[in-house]
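Hypothesis: this fold can be encoded by more than one sequence.
Test: take the structure tokens below, design a sequence, compare later.
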């Protein structure tokens, strides 16, 4: 999924870009409201994160214009303005959520996933990826979730891409470069550390015993493998 972030503070903008990039979102960034509108029409994002206070066009102004063009586009306001009236104005303009700075990484990820699920659910059925199984998990990409019996596990787009690649190649060792190309993109500079950290965090959520993984097995010197 593609996300447009409009934020004039470079540190916040870079932080959000890193957080969402790690989750597997394709991130496009704008430094102000005018640039956000230009990028919106060029890039056609699946949803938008707007800072309220920006030079020129405010986040509220951008939201009004986006709503004229796309009434169902998911929009999240991310702002230091925390008064109740500011939240009310944002929601009345049609925003799906309102996150107040400073915010925690987990909060942002949880809210982004919730909005992503609503965006996916609103698409025509044929555009949604089919559910698939890996191990004892049923993966539902349209919900960004996995299920094991009554247990529900939240996933990000990159988590699902990794699991799909492994599930589609049972018994075969998937190299690190294959994982990066398929799940990070060919323009991404590979880093063993970033891959291993992501797999480690994913295992903590999906494996019954992360210290003895049954779904994502390590193939030393090569990459990872799923053995049915």
């Amino acid at each position: 999924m593609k996300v447009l972030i409009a934020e004039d503070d470079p540190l916040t903008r870079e932080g959000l870009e890193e957080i969402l990039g790690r989750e597997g979102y394709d991130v496009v960034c704008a430094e102000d409201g005018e640039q956000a509108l230009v990028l919106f029409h060029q890039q056609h994002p699946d949803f938008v994160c707007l800072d309220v206070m920006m030079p020129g066009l405010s986040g509220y102004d951008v939201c009004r214009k986006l709503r004229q063009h796309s009434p169902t586009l998911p929009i999240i306001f991310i702002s230091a303005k925390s008064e109740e009236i500011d939240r009310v104005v944002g929601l009345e303009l049609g925003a799906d959520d309102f996150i107040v700075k400073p915010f925690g990484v987990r909060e942002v990820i949880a809210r982004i996933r919730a909005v992503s699920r609503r965006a996916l659910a609103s698409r025509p059925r044929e555009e949604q990826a089919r559910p698939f199984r890996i191990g004892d998990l049923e993966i539902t990409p349209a919900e960004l979730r996995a299920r094991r019996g009554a247990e529900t596990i939240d996933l990000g787009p990159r988590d699902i891409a990794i699991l799909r690649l492994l599930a589609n190649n049972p018994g075969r060792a998937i190299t690190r470069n294959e994982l990066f190309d398929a799940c990070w993109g060919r323009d991404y500079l590979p880093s063993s550390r970033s891959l291993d950290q992501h797999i480690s965090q994913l295992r903590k959520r999906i494996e019954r015993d992360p210290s003895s993984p049954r779904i994502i097995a390590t193939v030393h010197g090569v990459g990872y493998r799923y053995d049915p």
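The chain has two domains: 2-121, 156-225. The domain at 2-121 is CATH 3.40.50.2300 (Rossmann fold).
Hypothesis status: open.
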